[in-house]
């Protein structure tokens, strides 16, 4: 089994947002002009051998770029293949907590994702803290981005130390998944992951052949806490997994990377 821990099935208003211009330039692709059908994402999963994809809503200061209800509709259209990840407007903490509860209890979502660079504040900002407490109560992980910001936004808020380290100290029961491997601070992210039992890494936005050496070394630990992710549609699952055998992972480490860690963390 393969689980993709970070995918998007984007709307036009998300995929054509100016913040993603740099990503389209790097990939050599162009954003779609019409709403892509959910079959496009399922087809990419099939081509890469991905069994389950976690697709995320996106909320930012301008509102919903991909709404929770849109995500719920796509999940309902592909039972067993897709799982929902909620997002919320952190500027309204009470409403955000209520929306998160709705997403988990009524829509069956598996996690919350908030990307700090969208808001221009680090994950230690007070606006996040009610959501961390609610994630613990709901028994779901908090997913975020670590490392430099590929989109056209400042990168400082993606540093694992001090930000993820401090959140893990303040909320030791909170499960945290840091997506995008933390580059260029990957060694920091690995250190935080080793230090805190509930901190994980996902490899979204990177192909296997671009993993930094420090991440590859950590993957060699059969008790690693790394999970596979793509950041689709920016990178397809097939392309992201190309060269996997070159990592030399043992059976136990490979299973944990491709599905075991994600199935446990997201309750799949």
Features:
268 residues, alpha/beta, TIM Barrel, eight-stranded parallel β-sheet, two-stranded antiparallel ribbon, 15% strand
Could you walk me through the main structural features you see in this protein, from its secondary elements to its overall organization?
By secondary structure, this protein is an alpha/beta fold. It has helices at residues 12-15, 21-27, 38-48, 68-77, 93-105, 116-119, 129-138, 160-170, 186-195, 213-219, 237-241, 251-266, and strands at residues 3-7, 52-56, 58-60, 63-66, 82-86, 111-113, 142-145, 176-179, 199-202, 226-227. The chain has one domain (3-266): Alpha-Beta Barrel (TIM Barrel). It is built from 12 helices and 10 strands. Helix 5 packs parallel to helix 7 (129-138) and helix 8 packs parallel to helix 9 (186-195).
Number of domains: 1
- The helicity comes to 40-55%
What portion of the residues fall into strands of 2 or more residues? 5-15%
Mean pLDDT: 94
Low-confidence stretches: none
Report the CATH architecture: Alpha-Beta Barrel
Question: What's the arrangement of secondary structure elements?
Answer:
Layout: E1 3-7, H1 12-15, H2 21-27, H3 38-48, E2 52-56, E3 58-60, E4 63-66, H4 68-77, E5 82-86, H5 93-105, E6 111-113, H6 116-119, H7 129-138, E7 142-145, H8 160-170, E8 176-179, H9 186-195, E9 199-202, H10 213-219, E10 226-227, H11 237-241, H12 251-266
Parallel strand pairs: 1-2, 2-5, 5-6, 6-7, 7-8, 8-9, 9-10
Antiparallel strand pairs: 3-4
Helix pairs in contact: 5-7, 8-9
